[in-house]
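thoughts on my protein:
***
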Amino acid sequence: MPLFQTIQFNETTKILIWEITESLEELLSKVVLKEKTQKRLDGMKSQMHQRAFLSVRMLIQEMGFTDKDLHYDEFGKPYFDCDNHISITHSYHFAAIIISKEKVGIDMELQREKIQRIADKFTDFECDYLDPSSIEEYIKKLTVIWGAKEAIFKIRNEKGISFKDHINVSNFSLGETQTQASLHFDNLIKDFDVHYQEVQSDNFEGKFTLVYAFEK
């Protein structure tokens, strides 16, 4: 499957989504991996995880980069040796990246009923506006909130950050596509612009939520 979707957010920010329909062998034939990356791939037990991992390499190739250009810091945060920031996500049959001159984070999640069972693990501030009685909306909003907090965590990537205690996502409407969030951690306060949208494929059941955040 070729590139599923490209979102040109602004002049310096682009989001690319890949729908993972290829076999492991097909993906391997289309990418060149450095030795360190090959070892990491070989250590993965799940073939779905391997295919997602390789799909990310397909995406960076679409942007003119190669596996040799992509590195990870000691906390697992990806980066390039240039002034472009990158964030990576994958969920089931989708992989996505965001590349920008700004500090960015991205997350993609399948909308699932089970998120209701763990809502109290990552929401507190948001309970003031969430309505559990409207189940479909509740699930969708929880998925946006989780995605926003995950994206923000990927930007800051600091040990000890709690989704529930340190990241607040402002009230938002599913009819819109953006909201605000803030991080309150130790003596640090940071604000973020958060953008979200649904993604759905004809090839697979279920709806996904794509969320990406920019540090102000």
Observations:
- The chain has a mean pLDDT of 96.
